[in-house]
Amino acid sequence: MARNAVKAKLDIIFKKIFTDKNNEDLLTDFIAYMIDIPVKSIKEIVIQNTEILPLYSENKFSILDLKMKVNDKIVNVELQIKEEVDFRDRALFYWSKLYSGELKSGEDYGNIPETISINILNFNLFDCKEYQSSFTMMEKTRHEVLTEKCKIHFFELKKINKKVNKKDRKSLWLQFINAEEEEEFQMLEKTEIPIMKKAIMVIKEMSADEKLQEMARMREKTLHDEASAIVFAKRKGLEEGMQKGLEEGMQKGMQHGMAEEKIKICKQMLKHGLPINDISKITGLSLEEINKLDTK
Predict the structure, then answer these.
(1) Confidence check: pLDDT of 212 > 50
(2) Which residues contact 127 (CB under 8 A, 6 or more apart)?
(3) Is the model more confident about 85 or about 253?
(4) Closest CA to 98 of 29, 53, 49, 63
(5) Sheet holding 115-121, edge to edge
(6) Could you give the angle at the alpha carbon of 199 between the alpha carbons of 64 and 26, nearest 5°?
(7) Rounded-to-integer distance, Cα 128 and Cα 134, Å
(8) Would 74 disulfide with which of 88, 115, 147, 258, CB 3.0-4.6 Å?
(9) Three-state secondary structure along 203-268?
(10) Is residue 67 within 8 Å of residue 31, measured between CB atoms?
């Protein structure tokens, strides 16, 4: 394998692997294990957005979207590399758009196909040890499923066990996607599972392609620049907020100090018998405020 192996979790690499016509068997096996159906039950996969993300894309360039029709199901794979705020809401919103988008004008609602969303995350979203979290619509107390047409899966790569289990194909695929070092690919290759050996071979070939290597390098730089820009914006916002808070605090402190000083002067004037109206004019305190002061 090339010294600098390309990473399958890099969006352009992931999409290039699984949309290549020569790799239909890889996609079939991957999808089958992600949604827990027999590999042989998949008769047809039609990818509906095969285009590779532009290298210098400025919009949503940390999200990969792979939409396909698997037999009679709509399956969408999202690979989210960088942590995104409110991703749960985003995942539900995007699933709902896929689901409703399949109903043509005049068709019965019963014709809407089962819609499955697969979200592969390079960050932790849920407070649990399990790497997979699967959701459907269910009644809260009776646990009655409202519909089998809604399935949303989340796979958290950071929770994947590094130990290879050849009997767990789902985790093998996620380990393949998550692998960053040559040793990790070698461990997967040692399983002697034909489909995994082919996946490693594809990665090797892609890693040896200098043009693809450069694309991957530029893509990672773009993502890194995006992350750095976000961190800088947050830090700048925090610093500006702290500065504003400090200035407001100082202003309030000065105002409070001035008020304290006015009261002190006012009390001295009262002790010396100065008329209240004159004291009010000098200190700016109202007659009511002066009358409330304790001069003892």
Answers:
(1) yes
(2) none
(3) 85
(4) 49
(5) 45-47, 63-70, 73-80, 115-121, 145-156, 132-138
(6) 70
(7) 13
(8) 115
(9) HHHHHCCHHHHHHHHHHHHHHHHHHHHHHHHHHHHHHHHHHHHHHHHHHHHHHHHHHHHHHHHHHH
(10) no
pTM for the model stands at 0.72
Q: Using an 8 Å Cβ cutoff, are 151 and 134 in contact?
A: yes
Look at residues 20, 75, 67, 22 and name the one whose alpha carbon lies nearest to residue 47.
Answer: 67
Secondary structure (DSSP) of the chain: --SSPPPTTSHHHHHHHHH-GGGHHHHHHHHHHHTT--GGG---EEES--PPPPTT--SSTTEEEEEEEETTEEEEEEEE-S--TTHHHHHHHHHHHHHHHTPPTT--GGGPPPEEEEEEESS--SSSS-SEEEEEEE-TTT--EEEEEEEEEEEEGGG--SS--TT-HHHHHHHHHH--SHHHHHHHHTT--HHHHHHHHHHHHHHT-HHHHHHHHHHHHHHHHHHHHHHHHHHHHHHHHHHHHHHHHHHHHHHHHHHHHHHHHHHHHHHTT--HHHHHHHH---HHHHHT----
Between CA 281 and CA 47 the distance in angstroms is 82
> In this structure, which amino acid lies at residue 179?
A
Residue type, 100: S
pLDDT above 80 for 175: yes
| Token representation of residue 19 | 């949309």
Q: Which two tokens stand for residue 188?
A: 């997967």
Q: Hunting for tokens 């790569």 — which residue is that?
A: 157
Question: Rounded to an integer, what distance in angstroms lies between the CA atom of residue 172 and that of residue 165?
Answer: 7
Q: What is the pLDDT of residue 59?
A: 42
Digit-coded pLDDT (tens) for 101-132: 877 767 788 888 999 999 999 999 999 999 99
